[in-house]
Amino acid sequence: MSFRLTPHRFFSANPAGTDWVCGDLHGEFDLLQTALASSGIDPLVDRLFLLGDVIDRGPQSRALLEWALVTPWVYSVIGNHELLMIAGAGEPSLKARHRAIGGEWVDQLDPATHRSLATRCRQSWPLTITLAHGDDQVGLVHAQSPARNWGDVQASPYTRAFAMDCTWPWDRAQGGHHPVEGVTAVVSGHIGTDRVIRKANQVWIDTLARTGQVPLMPVSQILAWVNEEARHE
Fold first, then answer.
1. Is residue 126 within 8 Å of residue 77, measured between CB atoms?
2. Which fold has domain 8-232?
3. Quick one: which of 154, 215, 228 has its CA closest to 187?
4. For residue 232, pLDDT beyond 70
C-alpha cells in the first residue's frame, strides 16, 4: 500500500448535543436513515461517529459513502473494507481482493471516480479517534485497539503495520477481560456477532448483519456498559 492515512484524530466534547456511535453498516443506507429518524438525532447539535466498514456487501455502498463524506456532522474511522477500497484504486491485485470481500460495486465506477472516492476517504477519515465526553475519553477504532495503552495509539505515527492492526485483528474480543489503559472505553465493530461484546473497557458493536438492527447508540450507553463491567470485575 503506497498511500498514507491519518493515524489519529481528537474530538473535543460536544458542548450542546449528543454524540452517537454506530457499528458496521456495509452499504445499508436506507436502514441507517430509518434508524436515525427513530433515534431523534438532531443534526444541528449532535454528531455521528461511524466505526468503519461503511461500504461493501449491502445495496447502497456508494450512496452511503458519499453521504458520510459530505455530511458535516458525520465522522468515521477507516475499516478494513475502506482500506482495501483505497488500496484497490491504485493496485489492480488489491482491487480483486476488495471485490472478493463484497466490493463488486466499484466495478460500476470509472477509474477516475474510484480514485476520487478513495482519495476523499483517505483524506477525511483517520484510523483512530479519541472522543472526549465530559471527564471521560472514548477511543474509536474499527477492529480493536492496536496497543495496550491508548496513549501509545494517540502518539503512533502512520505505518502500514499500524493500519493493519487497527482494521483486521480481533483477538482482544476473544481473550480475557484485559482493559486498554489510558482511556475510559474503546469501541469497535468488525467481528460480526448477534450481540454486543464487552471485555473490560472494550466494546464491539458489529451486530447489523446478524440481527438486522442498526447498532446506533449514544456514547453514554457505551460508558454505562463499561461502568457495569467494572462493577462485575
1. yes
2. Purple Acid Phosphatase; chain A, domain 2 (3.60.21)
3. 215
4. no
